Amino acid sequence: MQQRVRGGLSQGVSSSGGLLKEFKEFILRGNVVSLAVAVLIATAFGTVVSSLTDNIITPFIGMFGGTPNFSALSFSINESEFGYGRFINDIISFLIVAAIIFFFIVKPMNTLIERSKRETPADPEEKKCPECLSDIPLAASRCRYCASEQPVSAAPSTAR
């Protein structure tokens, strides 16, 4: 029975070496590292936006509205305090972040995607009959609708 347990333990140790190797590969993948960097940058960016809101935007709005710091605004009902001023600051911060993301990430990406979708227009396969204005194949010598003779035009070549 002891041998069996030892065999189980030795198998567990050897497979844990494989687990450590897999874990190491997982951690060192490019997308995991990129995600970690993105989270750190987003946190730092959030701090900068909060500072911008608290120290520049809110006092600027306060010049016109009379309240330079919204975070102090609150009211009480039955000894419960509602700090709606902080909520106003958070909304301003959110709108700033959303505007920056839209104008500096989403809009340029949409423009790049739109540019990449532009394709050269396909060669026309039909032409208008000058007599009845019906669509007929380019290579047609007569209109299928009014039987008028058509000038010969070169059909698009399909051989490459």
Keywords:
160 residues, mainly alpha, Non-ribosomal Peptide Synthetase Peptidyl Carrier Protein, Chain A, two-stranded antiparallel sheet, two-stranded antiparallel ribbon, 3 helices, 8% strand
Q: Could you give the count of β-strands?
A: 4
* Largest sheet, spatial ordering of strands: 1-2
Helix run count: 3
> Beta fraction of the residues?
5-15%
Structural class: mainly alpha
Query: What is the residue-mean pLDDT, rounded to a whole number?
Result: 78
Major sheet summary line: 2 strands, antiparallel
CATH architectural name of the domain at 14-117: Orthogonal Bundle
Evaluate the radius of gyration. 35 Å
- The CATH topology of the domain at 14-117 comes to Non-ribosomal Peptide Synthetase Peptidyl Carrier Protein, Chain A
Assigned CATH superfamily of the domain at 14-117 = Large-conductance mechanosensitive channel, MscL, domain 1
Identify the overall geometry: elongated
The first-level CATH class of the domain at 14-117 is given as Mainly Alpha
Q: What is the gist of this entry?
A:
It contains three helices and four strands. It is mainly α and 160 residues long. The N and C termini lie far apart (75 Å).
Question: What's the SSE blueprint?
Answer:
Layout: H1 2-27, H2 30-65, E1 75-77, E2 80-82, H3 84-117, E3 126-128, E4 135-137
Antiparallel strand pairs: 1-2, 3-4
